Amino acid sequence: MEVATAVRSARHEIGLSQRALAARAGVPQSTVARIESGSLDPRAGTVDRILRAAGHELVSQVRPGQGVDRSQIRDRLRLTPRQRIDEVVTASRNVDRLRRRLA
After folding, report:
1. Cα–Cα distance between 27 and 21 in angstroms, integer?
2. Which of 3, 27, 47, 79 is 20 to 30 A off residue 60, Cα-Cα?
3. In a domain, 65, yes or no
4. How confident is the model at residue 1 (pLDDT cuts 50, 70, 90)?
């Protein structure tokens, strides 16, 4: 969820004005307004203070697939099935050669 949406939703849920939520969180009302409008990219600590003042909690979660380099997957999918099989056979032979050298 976007920060602006999270803050606005939390504030509306408890029926507070921006000024009242800001006072509870110990931040200026203009900060809450700028966050809700999306014109300010606040620090996590600021968002946490505001959300806690509204009875919510800031939680960090890993997004599946984020930070994964999918370029090799795309490269493999461009190959024909025969080309993929040939690559697997070549890799298998290389592993066998390496095992023999290390033995």
Report:
1. 9
2. 27
3. no
4. low
The token duo for 62 is: 């890993």
Full domain range(s) for residue 41: 3-53
Q: Taking a C-beta distance cutoff of 8 angstroms, is the pair 21, 54 a contact? A: yes
Residues 11 and 37 both lie in one domain: yes
* Joined tokens for residue 95: 């592993």
Distance, CA of 59 to CA of 32 (rounded, Å) = 19
Q: Give the list of residues 6+ apart from residue 9 with CB closer than 8 angstroms, or none.
A: 1
Q: What is the CATH number of the domain that holds 14?
A: 1.10.260.40
Q: Give dist(CA 103, CA 96) in Å, integer.
A: 11
Give me the amino acid identity at 51. L
Q: Counting Cβ atoms within 10 Å, is residue 34 exposed (0-12), middle (13-18) or buried (19+)?
A: middle
Is residue 37 domain-resident?
A: yes
Number of domains comprising the chain = 2
